[in-house]
UniProtKB/TrEMBL annotation:
Pfam families: Hexapep, Mac
InterPro entries: Hexapep (IPR001451), Hexapep_transf_CS (IPR018357), LacA-like (IPR039369), Mac_dom (IPR024688), Trimer_LpxA-like_sf (IPR011004)
Record's keyword annotation contains Repressor: no
E.C. no: 2.3.1.-
PROSITE patterns assigned to the protein according to its UniProt record, in alphabetical order: HEXAPEP_TRANSFERASES
Alphabetized GO MF terms: galactoside O-acetyltransferase activity
Protein known as: Acetyltransferase
Species assigned in the record: Lentzea flaviverrucosa
Family assignment from sequence similarity: Belongs to the transferase hexapeptide repeat family.
First-level EC class: transferase
Length: 179
């Protein structure tokens, strides 16, 4: 029988109240609390699925599981980031992410009111290309890919894919010009 974790990992509807997922979130929270208290890079390498050379994360940092976060080399995640990693979050090399950014992979049923009431959810991955800059307070929604060398203006809400080498801003985030 397929587990709730397997459902989560494949983007199917799953119950986040599953004991295995609850235990994994609690384990991740212990590491997050340790990191936020100590700023130890060793803790982040235990928490993340992978962390490239020269990359660093500033506290306060929050995530659900940690192991679904993959951050490339020489990338920076600023203060107060929230990464809801119910699906994979891939951050490329040389990425700068401003303070209070949110990368949100979780989805909830929209039209099936009963499923939402019963707390079913699914998730879709987020991919951020190489040499991307996300300004402060940017929110990236589930299923979004941001292309290499793109810049996303502060406070933008990214609800759909952004191509490479563009400046995009707003809510919803829209391409303003090529770079």
């Amino acid at each position: 029988m397929i587990t709730e974790k397997q459902k989560m990992m494949t983007g199917e509807l799953y119950k986040d109240s599953d004991p295995e997922l609850v235990a994994e979130r609690l384990s991740a929270q212990r590491l997050v609390d340790e990191f936020n208290a100590t700023r130890s890079g060793d803790v982040i390498t235990k928490l993340f699925g992978s962390l490239g050379e020269g990359s660093w994360v500033m506290p306060r940092f929050q995530c659900d599981y940690g192991y679904q976060i993959h951050m490339g080399s020489n990338s920076f995640l600023n203060y107060d980031a929230i990464l809801m990693d119910c699906a994979t979050i891939t951050i490329g090399d040389d990425v700068s992410i401003g303070p209070r950014a949110q990368l949100l992979t979780a989805l909830h049923p929209i039209e099936d009111h009963e499923a939402r009431r019963q707390r079913w959810e699914s998730a879709a991955p987020i991919t951020i290309g190489n040499n991307v800059w996300l300004g402060g307070g940017v929110i990236v929604c589930a299923g979004v890919t941001i292309g290499d060398n793109a810049v996303i203006g502060a406070g933008s809400v990214v609800t759909r894919d952004i191509p490479p080498r563009v400046l995009a801003v707003g809510n919803p985030c829209k391409v303003i010009r090529e770079l």
